[in-house]
Amino acid sequence: MMRLEPRAIDKLEALVRALMAGGDPDALVALVRERRYRTVFGIVTRKDPAGRSLNLPLFSRISLMRGMKALQLMDVAGERHFHRGSGRCHRRPEEEAEEEKAPQQPQEIQAEAAE
């Protein structure tokens, strides 16, 4: 969009300047104007990050590939990084407190209940 509509860059600059009021937005604005930016996809996985996109389900790999190809067609640099994660979602403090209050079952009982 920024390539087809020069006004889009002007609007983005105005937005950056408004959000960084009191700061120094000139360096960031210069990067946008000079087209020195990239899109970074960060993928958190419990699997070995060395497996890269093979760690993803098939349709997620296809979606990622399409996104990277679309960026390439728009002449925007794209990167993907795989990071090892715990697999736990971030929760609100009140949710964590409720979980701590719940009675804990021994591991064996939990496994039998799952079967």
Helical fraction equals: 40-55%
Q: Helix segment count?
A: 5
Mean pLDDT: 77
Termini separation comes to 52 Å
Shape descriptor: extended
Task: Give, in order, the helices and strands.
Answer: HHEHEHH
Total individual domains: 2
Radius of gyration: 22 Å
Instruction: Catalogue the unreliable spans.
Output: 104-115
Strand order across the biggest sheet? 1-2
Number of strands: 2
Structural class by secondary-structure content: alpha+beta
Task: Tell me the β content.
Answer: 5-15%
How many strands, which pairing sense, and closed or not: the largest β-sheet?
2 strands, parallel
How would you briefly describe this protein structure?
The chain has 115 residues and is of the alpha+beta class. It has helices spanning 6-19, 26-33, 58-73, 93-101, 107-114; strands spanning 38-45, 77-84.
